[in-house]
Prior knowledge:
The complex is a heterotrimer.
Chain A: H1 4-22, E1 47-51, H2 68-72, E2 78-88, E3 94-104, H3 113-117, E4 123-125, E5 141-142, H4 144-147, E6 148-150, H5 151-157, H6 159-186, H7 194-207
Helix pairs in contact in A: 5-6, 6-7
Chain B: E1 39-43, E2 55-61, E3 64-71, H1 79-85, H2 91-96, H3 103-118, H4 124-153, H5 158-178, E4 187-188, E5 191-192, H6 198-222, H7 226-232, H8 240-245, H9 251-255, H10 262-265, E6 279-280, H11 286-310, E7 331-339, E8 342-350, E9 356-362, H12 364-369, H13 372-376, H14 381-391, H15 395-399
Antiparallel strand pairs in B: 1-2, 2-3, 4-5, 7-8, 8-9
Helix pairs in contact in B: 3-4, 4-5, 4-11, 4-14, 5-6, 6-11
Chain C: H1 15-28, H2 36-70, H3 86-96, H4 107-123, H5 142-163, H6 167-198, H7 203-209, E1 213-214, E2 218-219, H8 226-242, H9 254-257, H10 267-292, H11 308-329, H12 335-362, H13 368-393, E3 403-404
Antiparallel strand pairs in C: 1-2
Amino acid sequence: xxxxxxxxxxxxxxxxxxxxxxxxxxxxxxxxxxxxxxxxxxxxxxxxxxxxxxxxxxxxxxxxxxxxxxxxxxxxxxxxxxxxxxxxxxxxxxxxxxxxxxxxxxxxxxxxxxxxxxxxxxxxxxxxxxxxxxxxxxxxxxxxxxxxxxxxxxxxxxxxxxxxxxxxxxxxxxxxxxxxxxxxxxxxxxxxxxxxxxxxxxxxxxxxxxxxxxxxxxxxxxxxxxxxxxxxxxxx
Amino acid sequence: xxxxxxxxxxxxxxxxxxxxxxxxxxxxxxxxxxxxxxxxxxxxxxxxxxxxxxxxxxxxxxxxxxxxxxxxxxxxxxxxxxxxxxxxxxxxxxxxxxxxxxxxxxxxxxxxxxxxxxxxxxxxxxxxxxxxxxxxxxxxxxxxxxxxxxxxxxxxxxxxxxxxxxxxxxxxxxxxxxxxxxxxxxxxxxxxxxxxxxxxxxxxxxxxxxxxxxxxxxxxxxxxxxxxxxxxxxxxxxxxxxxxxxxxxxxxxxxxxxxxxxxxxxxxxxxxxxxxxxxxxxxxxxxxxxxxxxxxxxxxxxxxxxxxxxxxxxxxxxxxxxxxxxxxxxxxxxxxxxxxxxxxxxxxxxxxxxxxxxxxxxxxxxxxxxxxxxxxxxxxxxxxxxxxxxxxxxxxxxxx
Amino acid sequence: xxxxxxxxxxxxxxxxxxxxxxxxxxxxxxxxxxxxxxxxxxxxxxxxxxxxxxxxxxxxxxxxxxxxxxxxxxxxxxxxxxxxxxxxxxxxxxxxxxxxxxxxxxxxxxxxxxxxxxxxxxxxxxxxxxxxxxxxxxxxxxxxxxxxxxxxxxxxxxxxxxxxxxxxxxxxxxxxxxxxxxxxxxxxxxxxxxxxxxxxxxxxxxxxxxxxxxxxxxxxxxxxxxxxxxxxxxxxxxxxxxxxxxxxxxxxxxxxxxxxxxxxxxxxxxxxxxxxxxxxxxxxxxxxxxxxxxxxxxxxxxxxxxxxxxxxxxxxxxxxxxxxxxxxxxxxxxxxxxxxxxxxxxxxxxxxxxxxxxxxxxxxxxxxxxxxxxxxxxxxxxxxxxxxxxxxxxxxxxxxxxxxxxx
Lengths: 236, 400, 407
């Protein structure tokens, strides 16, 4: 009979009107600025550069300016200039470092190809999404000072992934040390084997602010202060 | 009140057009002798119902459409040429942006083409995960489409908001798995990028189990509604012969009564292992297109149920499969799957270098859109809007 | 008027019931006799403007809130507590926006259309008895006056569409005229049996005819009789169409015609159209209450202690809530379906109902078994045409069964 479907529809909307007052499955609205979204761990936004410490981000960048990400980036939003000299990285090994590392977030499409291709776990995806800037050219072009964030921050936003990465890096480092020790043992006759070994042994513990303990979500470990994200550069 | 002089006013484009001079494609409707002036209206590119920047240049006799010219290209982004200048891996995130509602299926079709081209085997677990994601994507697309279609019919947002409420749940799943809600960039050559966790699978199970109830409620609101039936039944009839000749695919083709589904025809992935049916319509009108999608969602729920139950263990991505710096042997491959909108295919030609020399997308909404005029002739403006809605286009894919 | 100090004997004498009159007398009592009716008239105009202006403001808020909740979202909730200041924020925004008039538009008509529309939507309210003692103008044929004023509103929509010199507006104007012609007829026809049964063309007379209770509990409201229920249904559907509300919002039709006749309007003129829509809706609902829901009469004798204007307000809000609920649920009809619904369904239904109402009037003295037969016959005269006409209206439409491709 005419009207059956109409009444059925009215019943559905009435059910939703009532349901929105008591049924959280229906009323799903979150009032954003007051209620911050709970981002899943996998959430990705724009890349950042991982540094080992918060105190000296530029000195402890994992990036060695190999330029793979620059080459692989589909929209070509990464710009890197290699350094002319070498500086010791967090482990004390002399490395080339990026003299210039810039990402144009206006161009970046958050695909995380750069993260996948980086052999040094030096670039990871950030979760900060409120990144509006008043200057659309300078404000969205981030340089390496703005991009660098400490490993502890990485642990905070992607705990599981960061723990894996740390484990892998530690294993690699151990393997390297093992190799170095074997090499040193082979050259046991040489008079000064202790110096590099000691340096290598001391460095990881000293340089690493977030050892295995910080794999738990950072909320429960507020001891490690995470610096606020780098401020936007002033408009020229 | 004085009648305005057409030449002196904003109605200057009101002009008399001889019916024969219009080059009507189908003799659906010809203005009667002395029917009066025809009115040319440009619907779009900025119009609430063109689903993006799309223009319908229509000539009206009263409210009836005498001629309709679809104009697109406003969202052209050079997709295919970009694909020829980017590495095989680098094109993957671009495919997200074709049909931005269904990045998972776009990814899959592209991955399939590259896997064919380079001969990369896909792990068993990944095949299942791909099916799960593709069917979730189908649920998402069809739910949204129903909401959009009803919005075009003149609902004050209610079905659309319900559709978006459920879509949000699927997007949350995509986000927690791939890191992004819409631009998932999830498939890789030989598998998937991330292995879904047990929690993710449990969440998916909860969603799948509850989706039938949502569809019941949604259909109670719409499918039996007399106004919906009056608006959509008998409107925009697409004869099966025209559909086949025009290369129409997907739910639109099946609504016209042709049981063509690549999941059955090609049997790609692990689809032959699942037990599901392909609903087909009879009249090929807007209502059939809507209902076929509704029924397809029920089948998707059943596929999801089977896939979640049968999900095997093992690696998600073949560790030997090369992603970066892939250089397939010279040759060509066409990978196609049954996307939610129809056959989405990627045609790749390799000359042995790191980039394809030819990268071509067969976009279902583009092909389906080509018959818009045939569907709309003789109907009113209000019908044209819902016919366009029922075709299910995403301009990102049409214009590329 | 003399202030009676005695305890109220009937509900009409209750202090709250007479409060508006007392207020009027207090405000006008010090004036010379010759001026008093004029000031009183001005006072009633101001009251209607104030009350319905506020009703309009909060209707927009209520509509957005309820629509929001039906769609599982909160609705406006940022301006003031619970968004209660939202209407004023909207008003300020509308007032401060640039008023754009297309160069090709007919400047005079373009300006006049919203003004005329609001004026016409308002004048209908003059004859509505909002309470036992509350009617601004007593007319012998106030019902006719109301519908004459209401019919003109659609003309100003045509004016707006025509004057804008915009193709979408023009299409909207044509639709508005088609709608006007189609829906005035059932609207008027549905009211005729009420006039026949009540034996009066005046709104106060019609309300008075609905006083009292059958068996002490069943109010004599017209909507609670079979013919009245049918007439009420036809009236409300036609009222929906007359006030251009969903599912009959074809002139505006945002998914087809951008905003129809409103496409070229901005700022306060746009707000005036909005206001006219809500005032028209309120006026037609008020007429529906008057004609079919007993006007200001209380539903039960024991509830008469609540003042009559409160009852009227509650019934009015209930009908307006129905408008919102319907808007939230239904899609829009097409113009040919809209006119078909009127000519092939509502008009025949209303015509049958004329006979039905006439029979009801003739048989008003039947009691006992004859009284039951009277109800049965009247009910049959409603149900049978509804089913038959409904079937012919939906011929060709219906749920379908679907096949599955053979594997």
